[in-house]
Amino acid sequence: MIVYFINRAVRNYREELGLHLRVVFGFGMMVMVFGGYLLALGNLNRLVERWGSELQVTAYLKPGTEAKAVSGLIATLQKDPAVQTAEFVSPELAMKRFRDDLGSMSGVLDGLPVNPLPASVEIGLTPGARNPEAIKELANRTGRFGIVEEVQYGEGWIDRYDALIGFVELAGVLLGAFLLAITLGAVTNTIQLVIYARKEEIAVLRLVGATDNFIRIPFMIEGMIGGLLASTFGLGSLGLVFVLSAPGIERAFESWFGTFPLAFLEPLTVVILVTSSMAVGLVSSLVAAHRHIRT
User: Fold this and answer.
1) Which among 16, 117, 121, 188 could disulfide-bond with 94, CB atoms 3.0 to 4.6 Å apart, if both were Cys?
2) Per-residue confidence (pLDDT) for residue 150, from 0 to 100
3) Cβ–Cβ < 8 Å for 28, 231
4) CATH number of the domain enclosing 96
């Protein structure tokens, strides 16, 4: 019986090939657009993760803080689940780093009567804490220590990053909903046309005792096949565009982000897109069949 349904669905595709190909192309382009969004979002997250590995919280200590108090602060911080490393930076080490950063211009510091840089503790973050909420919470906890005068963690960058991610995620939800509505409508209308073209065949099947489910199943399989072909076409096209354009994009942004190889969609994401497309095709077929086949 399953073999019959599959053969019937395949035959339906052959008989209405032009109509189905137009839907597969349109559906596939929508999969390509949404896959492109996920591709961009994934690489943006990878870039932020790389920046996060270099991100740190710096606690500047009050002048005259005793070494015992600093050791106690570091020991407490190292027990914090958000802290990967905690390193004391003396004023002398801070000045040496400053001179190294200035390079040939470090001579401008020679006239300073005293070292103005404070002692500090540089706090490296665990991977799970490299997000705006966790960083702000860690900074607040650190700032409560009595020997800490000021805590810095790149507040402006964190806030801009948080706003950017929120905007991108909202745009993704709206884009996905828009494409889903268009796709459901297009596939549903196509299946309706196919069903209407076979109304006489459906009438004959009813005369010989075919149930509504027996009539529906081939159309449901058609919808799933359409979703599979559309996702294959869309993801294949996206992959081709990625292979051709990725090297140029990497070179264009190298001066901003350094060497950062772009990555294609994760295998799990590809599987989800394919199965989701098949599910959309199935739902569209059910909607179309419900409108034209009496229950």
Assistant:
1) 117
2) 92
3) yes
4) 3.30.70.3040
Query: Given CA atoms 277, 283, 287, 293 in this order, what sign does their dihedral have?
Result: positive
236 and 131 in a single domain? The answer is no
Same domain, 104 and 249: no
Whether 138 contacts 82, CB under 8 Å: yes
Region 250-272: mean pLDDT is 86
Confidence of residue 44 (pLDDT cuts 50, 70, 90): confident
- In DSSP notation, the chain reads -HHHHHHHHHHHHHHTHHHHHHHHHHHHHHHHHHHHHHHHHHHHHHHHHHHHHH-EEEEEEPTT--HHHHHHHHHHHHTSTTEEEEEEE-HHHHHHHHHHHHGGGGGGGTT-SS--PPPEEEEEEPGGG-SHHHHHHHHHHHHTSTTEEEEES-HHHHHHHHHHHHHHHHHHHHHHHHHHHHHHHHHHHHHHHHHHHTHHHHHHHHHTT--HHHHHHHHHHHHHHHHHHHHHHHHHHHHHHHHHHHHHHHHHTHHHH-S-------HHHHHHHHHHHHHHHHHHHHHHHHHHS--
Q: What is the C-alpha separation between 92 and 119, in angstroms, rounded?
A: 8
Give this prediction's pTM: 0.66
**Confidence at residue 291, expressed as pLDDT on a 0 to 100 scale:** 62
Q: Which domain holds residue 43?
A: 2-51+159-292
What does the pLDDT read at residue 16?
67
In the block, residue with structure tokens 């199943």: 217
